[in-house]
Amino acid sequence: MWWWDAVVYQVYPRSFQDSDGDGVGDLPGIRRRLDHLAYLGVDALWLSPIYPSPLADFGYDVSDYTDVDPRLGTLADLDALVREAHALGLKALLDLVPSHTSTQHPWFREHPERYVWSPVDGPPNNWVSAFGGPAWSRDEQSGRWYLHSFYPEQADLDWRNPDVVRALQDVVRFWLDRGVDGFRLDAIDRLGKDEQLRDDPPATGSFPFPRRPEEAPLEMRYSGNGPLGLDAMRALREAAGDALLVGELYRPAAEYAHWLEVLDLVFAFEFMFSPWEADRLRAAIESAARAERAAWVLSNHDFERLASHVGAENVRAAAVLLLTLPGAAFVYQGDEIGLVNGPGVDPPLDRAGRDRLRHPMQWEAGPEAGFTTGTPWLPLVDPEQRNVEAQRGDPGSLLELYRRLLELRRGLGAGFRLLDGEPGVLSFERGGHTVAINTTREPRTAPGGELVLATHDGEGLPANAALIVRN
Ligand code: GLC
Q1: pTM (predicted TM-score)
Q2: For the packed helices 398-408 and 315-324, what is the interaxial angle rounded to 10 degrees?
Q3: How far is the CA of 34 from the centre of ligand 1 (A)?
Q4: How far is the CA of 60 from the centre of ligand 1 (A)?
Q5: Which atom number of ligand 1 is nearest to the Cα of residue 60?
Q6: pLDDT tens digits for range 354-390
Q7: Based on the number of CB atoms within 10 Å of its own CB, is 37 exposed (0-12), middle (13-18) or buried (19 or more)?
Q8: CA distance 378 to 375
Q9: Is 194 a catalytic residue?
Q10: Which of 21, 199, 365, 402 could form a disulfide with 374 if both were Cys (CB 3.0 to 4.6 A apart)?
């Protein structure tokens, strides 16, 4: 299986490379930059949604599952992108959004029975949207209330309806026929809703991820997370054959196992949200590693950028950790040059506050950073301090560290065992190697063995450093 220990690079299409000067990244732009992915040495790219969309959620509100948003290009551009990626030895994954469509998707008017409606004149229960506020809104045209687990512009599909199942299976086949190699499946924990629409009960215990204030007091028992979700995955699997299916499951690692009966990978979110502390990381790794096919991930387009999450002093050690754990790993565009959260824009484009994670890629110094010749849809952050051109070929750069790690990981060997290290040091055996990561601000002792890679100069294991030795 090609994906078993693959590194997948997440491209946020609007922010990767603009080719026509409109300030928005596009597919021809991504084609132009495929050499960056080949240079890095990743195995695959995942494109966040490229479908036509009214942009309430920047592509995650899909208005046509089988086309390309004209601002991003055409189906022919996508075909060319997939072809060229393949020629470079890269697999191509799309983002599939099975839980909801845009309310501007023609289905919403032509096939209202494909959505979830309230049986009463108003919200039938206490379910809340992931972005805050009630999960039910009134459709002005029909006067009925529909469910939206995210923005009101994103109506939830009813997976009990066989037409929905068939339609999404057709979507999967449509893209596989065009040559894509798999899908990242969006928000799949939302698919299985309670048929009786019962109230979500109060939350008991703590939830390992950030949740918005309205959501946090409730346990998502009936608004999602039900058995229908897995049935839906089985239906998608039937259409997908052995194409890669990666699930975005915003749930604790203890729940991964049954999803992995159908899916190939699920994101290790407890790992992503762990504070940069050895003990906490270790616990998150332990529970994800038990699932065996949790994909390691430290950032994406929804949460803190890696450099902002772990701090600039830890970005090199974080790269070592992410790329030496056993199994597949995902890298969000720009993390390889240390991009930090940006300022966003005022007024915000994304109402949920995620603009600051989506600023354009910084290819070179200069005001537009090589991203566009026009006005970028979100401003550049700090191209003078950080850009691909300056880091390329500089042996001390973060970019070159990613490259070396990507090359090295192929030879690390099988076998994985967490070790008991000094306080504040996360260490593990990988094949015939030991990896040690110092999460503290003080020096620690380096493990014995032949040095293979170190993030920092100096003896031992300096503050915030990581190293790999051959045992
Ligand atoms: C996923 C996406 C996020 C989107 C949401 C609704 O969590 O990663 O960007 O807003 O689903 O589709």
Answers
A1: 0.98
A2: 20
A3: 25
A4: 6
A5: 12
A6: 999 999 999 999 999 999 999 999 999 999 999 999 9
A7: buried
A8: 8
A9: no
A10: 21
Q: Which amino acid is at 94?
A: L
Per the CB < 8 A criterion, the answer to whether 371 and 358 are in contact is no
Give the distance (Å) from ligand 1 centre to CA of residue 54: 15
Q: What are 343-347's contacts with CB under 8 Å, separation 24+?
A: 343/379, 343/381, 344/378, 345/378, 345/379
Helices and strands in the chain, H and E counts: 13, 17
397-430, pLDDT tens digit by residue? 999 999 999 999 999 999 999 999 899 999 999 9
CB neighbours of 415 closer than 8 A, spacing ≥ 6? 429, 430, 431, 432
Residue 26 burial (C-beta neighbours within 10 Å; 0-12, 13-18, 19+): buried
Q: In terms of residues, how long is the chain?
A: 471
The CA distance from 432 to 419, in Å, is 14
Q: Residue 415 region, left (φ>0) first, then alpha (ψ -120 to 50), else beta?
A: left
Within 6 A (CB) of ligand 1 lie 57, 60, 97, 150, 186-187, 248, 301-302
